Amino acid sequence: MALKPGDPGYRTALISSCIFFMICSAGMLVVNKLVLRAARLPITVVMIQMAFTVLCLVIFPCGLHFGSLRDVLRWSLSIPILFTIMLASSMLALDHATMGAIIVVRNIAPIVTMVIERIWGERIEINFWAAASLVYVIGGVVLYTSADVSFSAVGMAYMFANMVSAVLERLLQRKMIAVQPIDVSKTGMMLLNNACALVPMWLLLIVFGEHHKWHLLRNLSYLDAALLFFSCIVAVGISYAGINAQGYVSATTFMVLSNLNKFVVVAFGIVVLHEAGSWRAIVGCFMALSGGVIYARTATR
């Protein structure tokens, strides 16, 4: 379990867990976008990444621990469903929208999370500048989306589903990891997430008809196959990094962390993938991301 404030090494663990998550988060977004450009099979790619994570945990069961059936069921009957929706909607959004649009719109999530978290009784203290920074973020989101020519209603719907599912998943994870902790190890949570989520993913696979398009995988180049394999490795990392970081920060702060490291990702999208690069898009993106930085520096928690 995560160290508590005041424990030796707490600050180091907190900072390292946040940095590790931010690196994995940025890497996952870029690699997934590149993989989807080669194989337009978002659900299939997610399932491959999940199966790879499960296989790694079965072969190398480091620290696997399940304290009781009750705790296992508490996690398995809630988190994996949201985990499925979050990952599937993220990949579908990447297939219908630019990385910049996804990153910018995600900056609204901390506002939603903060409101729900306060209602749920999590101790969230926020000052004037922290609140103002989140309002500033909204202005950046509006400006960016008005300039992104590839912005679509379908992409927006997937981004909204991703934001809502991510908020709920982070809130429930935070509750079960730090507020009312269950007796399941972090690697155990990873295994439950990926193994249980494969079931609803099969249903989504059938709904979207991707199983009829699996022949497209044979057309992948060696570089594309290498990127897919690398995305599986990053998926293992982010599965652990997300759960680990939730033990140290509130869900609101976690959502902000998810967005802070995206300056490089947006630059990659504009320069390499030729995504939205007008002055309104750039200014809006800067507002949204810098607002997250301001929040991180001024929020008291």
Automatic annotation (TrEMBL):
Compartmental location: Membrane
Record key words, sorted: Membrane, Transmembrane, Transmembrane helix
Record-annotated Sugar phosphate transporter domain positions: 18-295
The name this protein goes by in its record: Gdp-mannose transporter gonst3-like protein
Domain of life the protein comes from: Eukaryota
Annotated transmembrane regions: 12-31, 43-67, 79-105, 126-144, 150-168, 189-208, 220-242, 254-273, 279-296
Cellular component aspect of the GO annotation: membrane
